[in-house]
Amino acid sequence: MKILVVGAGGLGGYFGARLAAGGNDVTFIARGKHLEAMLRDGLRVQSDATPLLVHPVQATDRAERVGPVDLVIVAVKLWDTEIAAESVRPTIGPQTAVVSFQNGVDAAERIAGVLGHEYVLGGVGYVAAAIEAPGVIRHTGTMQRLVFGELNGTLSPRVDAFAAACAHAGIDCEASSDIRRVIWEKFVFIVGLSAVTSLFRRSIGPIRAHARSRNLLLEIMREAVAVGRTSVALDPSFAEQRAAFVDTLPESMTTSMYTDLQRGNRLELPWLSGKVASLGVQLGVPTPANHFVTDALSLDVNGRIR
């Protein structure tokens, strides 16, 4: 497949590298020192489970240089969603699929609002990865999984083709006929983890081990489930199921929002706990824990002035 990866950070860099190593024609959209290092030294994935180096690597800061592609993977921060969608317009052909693996619950719809629903797939990605240095992605643990599907629930040839490419590249993947529900399930999980790791400035290990911080994590996820159940078929006990899953994660696992907080970068807070809080107001669903998270991190939401 000819694939364009927009955003060569943790998720985009990791899965894009795996797809490139698996024989696909992959081009990365990156910028600054990260782009310079990739062009000079290649893209390296540091991982105890799946280390690899893609060198030479195809990378640019301008999508119009790439030409039409089979698949666009959108992996930028949520505030750049519409800008990223508009930037890839020159790469869209009649059969091109555009799939978001971003954290937010409405990213696919936002991309569809720019490019049209006929091009857009829904997707979720599970991986603990971040840029460790320019040109270097650090993958923590063994988890690496992609789930994707048509927003209307059909299993299309383009979904099957992407699933085959992922499987050939050694990526744990699933083609879903209910991707909207899957997106909400991921959203519940990432809202909870991003909130507590950022609030407590710690990895998940000590947070899940302490009764009060663990209970806050559970309440944050319960509220997200309550909001999600107004539009998709989430199990009423899904928050408890995710809490049990959290117990299986590496103690050192954090989140991209916590990494951004540490580095003084802008936060995705308005599209995570902030989104749960705003939807709760619209739908009449109480979300006091997510309101608290949104307020408590509000001074950091735009990052530190440099």
**What integer is the average pLDDT?**
96
Strand content: 15-25%
Radius of gyration: 18 Å
Secondary-structure-based class equals alpha/beta
Quickly count the domains: 2
State the shape.
Answer: globular
Number of DSSP E strands: 10
In helices, the fraction of residues equals 40-55%
**CATH class of the largest domain, please?**
Alpha Beta
Q: CATH superfamily assignment of the largest domain?
A: NAD(P)-binding Rossmann-like Domain
CATH topology of the largest domain: Rossmann fold
Which residue ranges are poorly predicted, with pLDDT under 50 across at least 5 consecutive positions? none
Q: What is the architecture of the largest domain at the second tier of CATH?
A: 3-Layer(aba) Sandwich
Q: Major beta sheet, specifics?
A: 10 strands, mixed
Search tags:
alpha/beta; 2 domains; 306 residues; N-(1-d-carboxylethyl)-l-norvaline Dehydrogenase, domain 2; 10-stranded mixed β-sheet; Rossmann fold
Please give a structural write-up.
It is a single chain. The protein is α/β, with parallel strands linked by helices and 306 residues long. It has 2 domains: 2-177, NAD(P)-binding Rossmann-like Domain (Rossmann fold, 3-Layer(aba) Sandwich), CATH 3.40.50.720; 182-300, N-(1-d-carboxylethyl)-l-norvaline Dehydrogenase, domain 2. Helix content is 43%, strand content 23%. The chain has 12 helices and 10 strands. It has helices at 10-21, 32-41, 81-87, 107-115, 157-168, 179-200, 204-209, 211-228, 238-246, 256-263, 273-283, 288-296; strands at 2-6, 25-29, 43-47, 52-54, 58-60, 69-74, 92-100, 120-133, 136-150, 172-175. Strands 1, 2, 3, 4, 5, 6, 7, 8, 9 and 10 form a 10-stranded mixed beta sheet that branches. A hairpin with a 2-residue loop joins β8 and β9 (136-150). The longest helix is centred in the middle third of the chain and has 22 residues, at 179-200. It is globular and about 50 Å long. The chain starts with a strand and ends in a 10-residue tail after the last helix. The mean pLDDT is 96.
